[in-house]
Amino acid sequence: MTHKIIIDTDPGIDDAMAILFAFGAADIEVLGLTTVFGNVSAERATLNALTLSQWAGRPVPVAKGANTPLMMEPRKHADYVHGQDGFGNIGWPEAACERDVRSAPHFIVDTVNANPGEVTLVALGPLTNLALALELDPDIASKVKEVVLMGGAVHETGNVSPVAEANLINDPHAGDAVFGADWPVTMIGLDVTHQVLLKSGVLERIEAANPEQGGFLNKAAQHYFGFYREAMGIDGCYFHDAATIAYVLDPSLFGCRHGAIRVATDGLAIGQTMMAPEGRSFPTEGWENRPLVKVAVEVDDVRVLSLFERTLSAQ
User: Fold this and answer.
1) What angle do CA 74, 197, 206 make, to 5 degrees?
2) In what order do the strands lie in the sheet with 185-188?
């Protein structure tokens, strides 16, 4: 079965891993890339998405999206993690092609309406574009096959604050709206991505088998590996965004729980994803009529990394 997906992205080294993973998967049809602020500005994210699409030989539409959160001042871009260019400052040649004339939210609405029940939205950055698409056309919630997002943490410590993951803290209001909409959502958060450690040997083997794409990823990842080494003493990097593509290809790689999710929108806990487990009720307000979300809490790290390596090595 072919999975039709739109990737909403802020590339980003780990976004590049996910996008090339999706491009290389025979069972995935990428209908387009939509861009958002986060790791870099929306303008840079758009240029990087165009570059990946053109260079990988996958000329899909690229639509530029939100450059700021819905209701708060933007946080600083994570150039200390991904480099100022988002690709580890490796000087990769930029694309010469043009982006789609539509905004990212309009592209999402148009594409979902043209393919009702078939499109999975894979969100790798702040959820601003998805929230804006819902505002444009609330009916798309009933037409989206699934939303698979990288973000949040229920049991795991956050990576921007003790409780908050980067994508959710960058636009918590959008996150709360997306988790509250009546569409199927699967959250691939730090609870599982922190269980999968991508080491340099995997990228070296991919480069040996696929020198162009593997060489780009291996070169760009050196900046990313350096951040993890200095900040956390880790040899490698956590497998964040690309884990969403692994889930789309094979959900059996993940063990999930169900619950209602709220995102804290202010205060010390801003960006925190809080889960009310399925079957539990609470006397506090704010949990009424919230839909159940599928939250990944277990992962087969060996099989996930094997799928990633096999897919990219086969190009």
Assistant:
1) 100
2) 62-64, 28-35, 3-9, 119-123, 146-150, 185-188, 293-299, 254-263, 273-277
Burial of 73 from C-beta contacts in 10 A (0-12 / 13-18 / 19+): exposed
- CA pseudo-torsion sign 174, 175, 176, 181: positive
The pTM of the full predicted model, rounded to 2 decimals, is 0.97
What local confidence, expressed as pLDDT, does residue 78 receive?
82
Q: Which of 188, 298, 166 is nearest to 243 (CA)?
A: 188
Three-state SS annotation for the chain: CCEEEEEEECCCHHHHHHHHHHHHCCCEEEEEEEECCCCCCHHHHHHHHHHHHHHCCCCCCEEECCCCCCCCCCCCCCHHHHCCCCCCCCCCCCCCCCCCCCCHHHHHHHHHHHCCCCEEEEECCCCHHHHHHHHHCHHHHHCCCEEEEECCCCCCCCCCCCCECHHHHHCHHHHHHHHHCCCCEEEECHHHHCCCEECHHHHHHHHHHCHHHHHHHHHHHHHHHHHHHHHHCCCCEECCCHHHHHHHHCHHHEEEEEEEEEECCCCCCCCEEEEEECCCCCCCCCCCCCCCEEEEEEECHHHHHHHHHHHHHCC
Catalytic residues: 10, 240
Mean pLDDT of 92-103: 91
Q: Please state whether beta strands 146-150 and 119-123 pair in parallel, antiparallel, or not at all (unpaired).
A: parallel
Please state, as a whole number, how many other Cβ atoms lie within 10 Å of the Cβ of residue 16.
29
Q: Tell whether the model's pLDDT for residue 1 goes beyond 80.
A: no
Which residue type, as a one-letter code, is found at position 302? V
CA-CA distance, 244 to 199, in Å (whole number)? Answer: 18
Tokens encoding 141: 């919630």
In the chain the first and final C-alpha atoms are separated, in Å, by: 20
* Mean pLDDT taken over the chain: 96
The pLDDT tens digits of the residues spanning 289-303 come to 999 999 999 999 999
